[in-house]
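Q&A log
Question type: sequence-to-structure
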Amino acid sequence: MSDLKARFEQAAQQVQQLPKRPDNDALLKLYALYKQGTLGDVTGSRPGILDMQGRMKYDSWVKLKGTSNEQAMNDYIALVDQLKSVVK
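Response status: OK
Response body:
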């Protein structure tokens, strides 16, 4: 698990250094996978209609409900690797 966590943290740093900003769908997926990997299932209520960005983030995260932290970390790492290969 510690190796996975180290790779996950490294991927989180690498995504900050991408030369091109990922599209909104990729950003939402990254957000949701990061939250699922670090905190687990979403808690709290869905943000109100006036908070569209908060709603989109919440909805993206809630789709991962039941996904293990380890699986979310692995999926996050894979997505970052994919994004790195696309921008080269």
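Response note: The radius of gyration is 13 Å.
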